[in-house]
Design brief:
about 90 residues, YggX-like
């Protein structure tokens, strides 16, 4: 079983094995830095964010937004703020 030092909790834990719809650079960073325990927390957070911001998963801007959020959650974005209150969902996104 692969372990890593998680960038969120800082503990040596089982590495995440599946990062859902995240791809490319984001996926690579998550697979290299995220533990399964924190990933499970992120999934709950992601659901809250999607509900809170009424995100449309068919909108490419949603991908972009969630990419930023997941990197912030795992401290992989160089210090950008998580779940920014400045975010305004695009008008007529649906
Ligand atoms: Zn962790």
């Amino acid at each position: 079983m692969a372990t890593l030092k998680c960038s969120r909790c800082g503990q040596e834990r089982e590495a995440v094995t599946n990062v859902a719809f995240y791809t490319g650079d984001v996926k690579d960073k998550l697979m290299a830095n995220a533990c399964q325990v924190c990933w499970d927390e992120w999934i709950k957070m992601q659901i809250m964010i999607i509900n809170e911001y009424r995100l449309n998963l068919m909108d490419p801007k949603t991908d972009e937004f969630l990419n930023k959020q997941v990197l912030a959650f795992f401290n992989l974005d160089g210090g950008a703020k998580q779940a920014s209150v400045d975010y305004v969902p695009p008008e007529g996104a649906e």
